[in-house]
Amino acid sequence: MAKVHLTLQGKGGVGKSMMAAIIAQYKASKGRPVLCIDTDPVNATFEGYESLNVRRLEIMDGDEINSRNFDLLIEWIATEEADDIVIDNGASSFVPLSSYLIGNQVPDMLAEMGHQLIVHIAVTGGQAYEDTVNGFEAIVSQYPQTTLFVIWLNPYWGPVQSSAGVPFEKSPEYKATLKEAKGRIAGFVVVENLKKDTAGRDFGEMLQSHLTFDEALGMESLSIMTRQRLKLVKKGFYDQLDNLPEI
Questions:
Q1: Quick one: how far is CA 13 from the chain centroid?
Q2: Strand, helix or coil at 37?
Q3: What is the pLDDT of residues 98-127, one digit of tens each?
Q4: pTM of the full predicted structure?
Q5: For the CobQ/CobB/MinD/ParA nucleotide binding domain, which residue ranges apply (predicted)?
Q6: Is 53 exposed, middle or buried (0-12, 13-18, 19+ CB in 10 A)?
């Protein structure tokens, strides 16, 4: 059985490609064959990770998205021998891909094939908080009982809380959706609010260079302390993912 990891969120710039890269690295660190796919027609950030051998799925016909092009994505999932399949989806293709998956009952079809669909949803702070919470609610309500969800809390734009100061985990929106999800939320991954002048800068530069943790940690051109901080960031993510046994 393959685990099919899909990053989804209708809001751009919330860290979906970062999430996909970390998931792929984590799974590979466990010795699991991983297939990585980038479906973002505008900003194919995930494809930039050369060491992850990310495939680009072309979904554009001219200036428009042709949903039929998603058929190839399903062929790859069905025929490739991989323990984990990590798919990064852009904000511009969020609605077409979700409509395709739900309209064609793909999550249930994957379950019948023996695969587990796991949707990773980013919720951010700041001005994007409300939009990402709305996206979270919509995704959970639309996907069937065979789907699991992982929530990534990203404080890059500010604390992940409402304008009234209520943390997302204690918000009425999350509590209501938790009841609706009926045990399908596997858990949270919290992106650490790193100090901007030290670990935050190191991690940001690593992401901008499309480097994996192992690549960065193996670079002697980086200072000892830069590598130490990146090692701690890596451990923070991997420890949290270790605590989500269902994924």
A1: 12
A2: strand
A3: 999 999 999 999 999 999 999 999 999 999
A4: 0.96
A5: 9-105
A6: exposed
